[in-house]
Amino acid sequence: MAEDLQKRLYGALTEGDERTGSGQVRAFATHFTALTASKLAGGLVDPKLVLSSLLVALGAPGALVGALVPVREAGALLPQLALAAWIERSRQRKWFWAFGAAGQGVAVLGMSAAALTLEGAAAGWAILTFLAVLAVCRSAGSASYKDVLARTLDKGTRGTVSGLAGTIGAVGVLIFALLLSFGIIPGTPQAIAVVIALAGALLILAGLVFSLLNEPQADVQDKQQGLGGVRAVFAPLREDGQLRRYIATRTLLISTALAPPFVVMLSASQGDSVSLGQLGLLVLASSAAAIVSSYVWGRLSDRSSRRTLMFAGMAAAAVLGLAAVVGLVSGGLGGAFGAAGFVFVAKIAYEGARAGRKTYLADMDAHGQKAVYTALSNSILGVMLLLGGGFGLLADLVGPAPVLGIFAAMAAGGALVAAGLREVQAGAQDR
Fold first, then answer.
1. Cα 283 to chain center, whole Å?
2. Which of 14, 68, 70, 137 is an S-S bond match for 103, by CB 3.0 to 4.6 Å?
3. Domain at 23-213+236-422: CATH architecture
């Protein structure tokens, strides 16, 4: 009965592919459950909003607050190249994701303990250290997941499972935002620390569930030689023009990830600071955007991830360009409510860029080196994100509005570069 219900749900979500067997149903359910728990936990420990507000409330220095996003984003990407050889030599790669998720959970529990027992700079350093541990553990999962996904789920379902999990996870974050906005969850460091502890438990659960995935053993006979040195690891950059174009597209579309803090900064320039009490409003806008867009972007990615990247880039260029113009003309965006509106639309564009890049890499021909392609592209993006920290210095010099204009131009460029990518989904060329 339960298995029949699973098959019906899976068939409805994947347009009723009759070739799908019970093994695919179980794999879909495992991916969905683990990803949902992971995505919900990620929203509850979002460094852009939740952790930064928590550190401010604990009295941590501003330098530590500003280091949260670079440590989280770049730290999750840069180690992947070093992990690639280890992953490629492993016959089962699910354990990298499973142990990585569990490790993240332990790190998040450490953050919660630090928030409950420490204050000031001590709390800031402790939470930042645990965030660095989380980022490294996350890098193991990110470097291995595309390969596991490609070998355990059929094309046409990979973007769907990610998009559906993103939607359900965002609903959970939305509930958190509502509870925070209405004061049911107090806006205190202690209450936020309890929520963070819940996120840690969810990540450990995600790792346990993913460890149950029935993953076929990978062929590693010819992999060890190809990962013997730096030249071999970087060989795909020289040999695969589509990989270079894909990385260029991702580089330009990092503007969708970097932009939200500058939207908030522009709004605050009118004198309406975004306080801890307004955290619920911003989280509400962000989670609502994920809810209304994640599944749609996922389904579109399964049809054409190239077009998804193009549409996301165009959407980001439009909203960020509008924010830049409004900011230059009026000097702000109308405070927290204006920032929430622009964050909402920018988050929709970000979800599209995220879904498109993940599905494109999962479905593209990686010549048997999926983990290497993933780690290589993610490591390069990690360096770009670190360099992106310079936009904060630029904003201090010229203001946030011109920086948003630069991000809009980058997003438009990303859409143009994505247009030159090959279609990797079956039948997309004919649509």
1. 15
2. 137
3. Up-down Bundle (1.20)
